Amino acid sequence: MDVSVIIPIYKGNGYIESLLNKIEKNYQESQKEIEVIFVNDYPDEEIILGSQHDFPIRIINNEMNQGIHQTRINGLKKALGKYILFLDQDDEISDFFIKSQLEHIGDADLCIANGIMESENGKCLIYKNRCSQNYLKKQIGFIKVRDLIVSPGHCLIKRTSIPEYWTKHVMSVNSADDYFLWLLMIENKCQFNVNYDVLYTHKYTGENVSGSIDQVHKSNMEMVDLLKEYCHNVNVDLLKRTITYKYDMKKQGKLVPSIKNIDLFLYNTIYQLLWKGM
To answer: What are 207-249's pLDDT values in tens digits?
Structure first.
């Protein structure tokens, strides 16, 4: 099996047909062995499949709501593919996603494609230019800037490179489980490749982002505590300071947190100018 597509579903029957149609096109374009694993995290509602497809589809039903991290792990435990694609139910991928990602991953552990980010203000590229995307391979930005990957949905991951620690230490607060995964892969000295093709769309759902700031921060701090028990290569103290700095700026304004963290302020300014292409 070449690729396992793992899709957590939560009250998401309305997304299934379009997801399977996109994966069908990917199957036809890539001519690779693909399997789809739906993991139902809303036991009160049965997953309903429509028409038949040329690739195997499996359904895993959680006995109770377990959250996004455990749900992804439940799918991973059943996956047979050499590579893993974690999709959210409202993600959208191009017809050539799998073909292009397999062509670009090479010997790397993770391949990060470009895509479209939707918001209430319109659409933009996730990475503005190649310089911005190539910066991902430095990996330091994940510690000194933020989680630089919008979603696992624009990544192809080598299954054997997913750290066991990520599957054994499940986050209780939804949000940072993917950030947790990237940092653990950095800790394990995994190689990141990039794919300049625009293959993914992060759909705008209308969620009030400002209302979730506290939950995101709580999830990030839970992640920091878990990383402290494992990491030797990743500077977890610096990561915690970065996370706190960014949170404080959102809550207090930029001036005081930036003065208190002048080194991070300067680094992030350089990042905006040199790599993000601001």
So the answer is: 544 448 999 999 999 999 999 999 999 999 999 999 999 999 9
Residue 37 contacts by C-beta under 8 Å, 6 or more apart in sequence? 4, 5, 6, 7, 57, 58, 59, 60, 75, 78, 79
| pLDDT at 224 (0 to 100) | 98
Amino acid at site 137: K
Q: Answer yes or no: are the C-beta atoms of 38 and 60 closer than 8 Å.
A: yes
Angle 167-169-171 (CA atoms, 0-180°, nearest 5)? 105
Residue carrying structure tokens 């510690």: 143
The whole-number average pLDDT for the span 192-211 is 81
Q: % helix / strand / coil in the chain, to the nearest 5?
A: 45, 20, 35
Residue-range domains of the chain with CATH: 1-90 (3.90.550.10), 111-278 (no CATH)
